[in-house]
Amino acid sequence: MKLDLTGKTALVTGATGQLGRVIARTLATCGANLALHYINNEMKAKELKDEIEAMGRQAVIVQGDMTKQDTAFRIRDAIQNTLGNVDIVVANAVIQYEWTSVLEQAPEDYLSQFESCVMQSVYLAKAFIPQMQEMRSGRFIGINTECAMQNFAHQSAYTAGKRGMDGVYRVLAKEVGEYQITVNQVAPGWTISERDRTSEPGHDEAYTRSVPLRRRGEDQEIANVVAFLASDLSSFITGAYIPVSGGNVMPAI
């Protein structure tokens, strides 16, 4: 049994981010060609493109604000003209902001999270799902978070955006399942990324004590689950919210 994405084309939004770049590399390692989305970091996008092409894969970079519908359609057309139809969409991009209490959080922060979590996914669906329906296959994967289950203080805008995103994915899974398109979410915990490996260790003892596996997850462990959901090995899984958090959150029946 092999996780093989040879001949598939994947779009990763926010591909230059800490987690996005590992997801992109992992999908390429499994054989996929990549469309690498970025909004500001063109240098990192070009570096990642070169890295993936050195693996023998095809790669293109696409730029734009994923909270705008015209961006999703423009990116779709650019990818189709270079790599062909997209088989795998990974909605990973998210707007960063400073967390504080509900009473102190700026209203625009709630709007930004709604736009980058909910509306990005809606626009990506409108742009790419029709292609997948024609092909009668496809993988639509969103990066959610354990925070959507935790509802801790100071997380309200992020949690609200991600919980709204969860609703979109569950409904979409039911709407497109007959076309053999799967729609799933990966929900990381507090993840160790390249930034953590090149800086002073953080104070995470309290967090790790709460995790049954007694450690933080690695970015590669998140990317592995994305690759599994992108593959034929996950062909009968849809509508799932899958925590990759060492057991820190556990959806209940």
From TrEMBL:
- Keyword annotations of the record: Oxidoreductase
The cross-references to Gene3D superfamilies, in alphabetical order and at most eight, read: NAD(P)-binding Rossmann-like Domain
Kindly give the InterPro entries that the UniProt entry links to this protein.
Answer: NAD(P)-bd_dom_sf, SDR_fam
The biological processes this protein is annotated with in GO are: bile acid metabolic process
According to the lineage, what is the superkingdom? Bacteria
- Give the family, as the similarity comment puts it: Belongs to the short-chain dehydrogenases/reductases (SDR) family.
- Protein name in UniProt: 3-oxoacyl-[acyl-carrier protein] reductase
Instruction: Give the source species.
Output: Paenibacillus polysaccharolyticus
